[in-house]
Amino acid sequence: MGCLQKLGTVNVLAKPTRDTLDSKLPKLIQALRNYSLQTFSHDLVAGVTVGLVALPLAMAFSISSGMSPQAGIYTAIVAGFIASALGGSQAQISGPTGAFVVVVAGIVAKFGVSGLFVCTLMAGVMLVALGATGLGSAVKFIPRPVVVGFTNGIALLIASTQVKDFLGLQIDKVPGDFLGRGAAIGRAIGTISPAATALAGVALLTLILFRKFAPKIPGAIVVLVVGTAAASLLHLPIETIQSKFHGIPRGLPGFSFPSVSMATVQALLSPAITVAMLGAIESLMSAVVSDRMMKDKHNPNVELIAQGLANIASPLFGGLPATGAIARTATNIRSGAKTPVAGIIHAITLVVILLVAAPLANLIPLSLLAAILMMVAYNMGEWAEIPQILRLAAADIAVWGVTFALTVFADLTVAVQTGMILAALVYITKVTRTTTVSKVTDDYLTDGHDHNLLFHELPMGVAIFRIHGPFLFGSTDKIAEITDEMDSLPPVVIIRLRNMTAIDATGIQALEEMTRDLVSGGRHVLFCGMREQPEKLMRKSGFEHHVGEENCCANVKVALSRAEEILNGSTGALAL
C-alpha cells in the first residue's frame, strides 16, 4: 500500500507512473504542439521583461564571484537558452544565481578562472548523470532545516560581499572568509564614499518600496535605469563597470574548451559535487515554485539533464555555473509566460542587449548592483522560516544551526555534508522511537472505536486520506496522491493521521502547502487522530494556527461531525 491512501466508497492505491513518451520529453516540445499567436504574445512580453531583469542580476552575481560582468551575461544567454529549450519545467528561467556566488568565488581564488570552467563542466556531467539515471528525485532527501540553514548562510555571505561596493570602500582585495571580510571592512570604514553610499541607499530603499507597494513592477530595472542616468548626469565620483572592468565587450562570446588534466579533475572533484548539488537543489526548488504558480508539474529528471547540458555549455563560452533562478522564474510567470518559449526569448533579449546596448551598460555604477544584490540576499534568505524552525524539536534546531554556522564560518561543502549527517541521525532516532510495545487494555479498545472507520458512515461530499508510517523528509512527495486529484476532490477532505508515526519540519511544511493548495481550490481540510510525537511537534510549530484549531480533530468521529457542519453550511470557510 502507498504512504497515502484514500478511503470511503472508493479505495485508491498508489497511482501507476505514466511511462509515456511525453513524460520524457522537454516541456518545449509538448508546448509547441498547440502553440498559438496569442500564447506567443504572452511569452514575448514575459521573455523581454525577465531578460531586462536578468541583466543587472547576471552582472552582479558574476562580479561578486570574482569574474567579469560579461561572464554573467554569457551564462544567462547560453544556460538560459539550453535549459528552457530542453528542460522539464514550463516557465523556469535559468542563469547565474546567488547560491553559487560564494562557491564560485572560492574556486576562482584557489584554482583560477580555468579551474572554474573545468569544475562547471564536471558539475554539468554529474547533473546529466543524475537525471539520466532517474536520481532527480533523490534531492528530496535533503531535509528542510539543512536547506534553510545553508540558504540563510549564503544570503548572509552574499550581503557581506556587497558592503564594499555599497559603501564605496577602498579595499584592494576583499578576503574570502566571512570574519576576514568583516575585519577588512572595519579597517577601511574611513574610506567610505558618500556618493556611492547615498546612491546605493536610495536604490535599496526604492527596491524595498517597490517590493512592498508595487510587487508586479520590476524594481531592479527602474533602479538600474534611473540610478545609472542620475549618476551619469550628476557626474558622481563613483566606480562603474567601465572604470572597474574597462567595459563590457560588444558581441557574442567565443568558444573555447578549457585544458583538463587528471590532477585538475581530482582536485576539483569536491567543489564540482558542491556545484552539482547546489544546481540540482535550486533548479528543482525553482521548478516547484513554477509548478505552484502555473498549476503544472515539472519532470525532475528531464530538468536535471537540461541543467547539466546548460552547465556543460556555459563554460565553453566563458560562463559560470547556472541553475534555475526562483526570483526570475516568478517574474517570468507574473509577466504572463505560458511556455518555455519565454525563457528562450529572455536569452535572445540579452543577446540583443549585448550587441546593441553594451556601451550603456558600461555606465552602471557598482554601488547600484550592490544594492540590487543586497535585496536579492534578503529575498533569498527565507528568514521567515527561522521562527518556525525554532519552534521545532531541539534536534531539528541543531541541524539548522550547525548548517548555518558552518556555511558562514567554514564552507558550503562541509556545511551540507555535516547537516546531512546530523539529519540522518535525527531521522534514525525519530524512526526508532516509533516502535512501541504496550498492553492492549479496555481503554485502548474504547479509544480505538472512535478512530476506526468501520464504525462510522462516510457522508457524501467527504473524502478521507490516511498517512501511514513516518512522514519525514524523503517521503513528503507522496502527498501528491492528494493534490493530483484536486479537480475531482469533494468539498471536504479529511487527512487521517492515526497511523502516521512520526513527522519532521519537512513533513509539516508539506502538509501546510497541501492545505494551502486545497483551500485555494475551494476545499475544506480537516486533520484527525494525531499521535503523540506528531501532535507535539505540530503544536510547537504552530500548525493548528495555520490550518485552524477547529480543523484539527481528536479522531475520525469528531472529524466526520465537523465535516457535516461544513456541508450543512453552519460554519465559514477555512481561511489561510
Q: How much is the average pLDDT?
A: 84
Helix content: 55-70%
Q: What class do helices, strands and sheet pairing give?
A: mainly alpha
* N-C termini distance: 32 Å
- How would the global form be characterised? globular
Radius of gyration: 26 Å
Q: Strands across the major sheet, in which order?
A: 1-4-5-6-7
Instruction: List the total number of helices.
Output: 24
Major sheet attributes = 5 strands, mixed
| Strand percent estimate | under 5%
Number of distinct beta strands = 7
Structural domain tally: 2
Overview of the molecule:
There is one protein chain. With 576 residues, the protein is mainly alpha-helical. The protein has 2 domains: 4-28 and 37-386, no CATH class; 443-567, STAS domain (Transcription Regulator spoIIAA, 2-Layer Sandwich). Helix content is 60%, strand content 5%. The protein is built from 24 helices and 7 strands. The chain has helices at residues 27-32, 37-64, 69-86, 101-132, 144-167, 178-187, 194-213, 219-233, 241-245, 262-294, 300-313, 326-334, 341-356, 358-361, 366-380, 385-390, 394-409, 412-432, 442-451, 480-483, 505-520, 532-540, 543-547, 556-567; strands spanning 4-7, 94-95, 323-324, 462-467, 492-496, 524-528, 552-553. The chain has a 5-stranded mixed sheet with strand order 1-4-5-6-7. Strand 4 (462-467), helix 20 and strand 5 (492-496) form a beta-alpha-beta unit.
